[in-house]
Amino acid sequence: MRALCATDLSAASEAAIENETCLECLGRIGVETIHLVTVVPANVHSGMPGVNFEGRRQQALDQYRTVIESAGFDVEAHVVRGTPYRRINGIAETIHADLVVVGSRGQSPLENRVIGSTARNLARTTVVPLLVNRIERATDEPEVLREHLFQRVLFATDFSEHADRAFTAFSYLHHATEEATLVHVRSPKDEGLDVDISPQEQLAEHANTLESWGIKTRIEVLQGDPADEILAVEADVQPSTILVGSKGRSRIRRLLLGSVSEEIVARATGNVFLVPPPRAV
């Protein structure tokens, strides 16, 4: 497997990329090659007064490469210029990445209403699974909040094809997973729907699959707003990562907020693993 690790050379990026436990978790799910990508914004130039960007960039990349190679991975570095999320998506497709990893310090409730962060934009547009690795906020020397990336997974499902696709990620995540909480939230619009199999039975089928891999599993069927209820379960069980599928969106719809997966990426306190639909050809 190939992982693309995006870095802006900040302390938060360093915490995400150099954490030994995080690297070990990536190795356990089958990652062998890590592509380091740093995107130089179009308005930043190496000759700008007071900016030793070239030297700082090279020093940071060399440091990251040394740490990652020492952990047993093959490493390739890419330095590109442009809009970060667009260039990251483009390189992910070019190298056939199996997942993209991006560090995020999270945002305050007010900042959650603003479009702009690379992690939020990637959540809307990514064409490969995206791991948002949550980093401490408001500190000069941040740490990864939950470094055992896939040890305890909260899987949220609405039983759609998008959610089923996300569940298939356990085919490789289970090598690093010990516990899983499976959650379905019934919203008011679900009332009165005639279904052949109850949510409890559908979750139980998923649970049987995970337990056959030795994963301790619990199920929850809740009622209310999906994002709010899923995040309430996160606060209760403290998973390492929330696993969720993302619905496809048109080019214009990608500019709008509102989907459950985007709310979770914005508001979750821990890591989020977002599995998008396959790219339309």
UniProtKB/TrEMBL annotation:
InterPro entries (UniProt xref): Rossmann-like_a/b/a_fold, Universal_stress_UspA, UspA
Domain UspA: 2-132, 150-276
Domain of life: Archaea
TM helices/strands, residue ranges: none
Similarity field: Belongs to the universal stress protein A family.
Name of the protein described by the UniProt record: Nucleotide-binding universal stress protein, UspA family
Annotated organism of origin: Halobaculum gomorrense
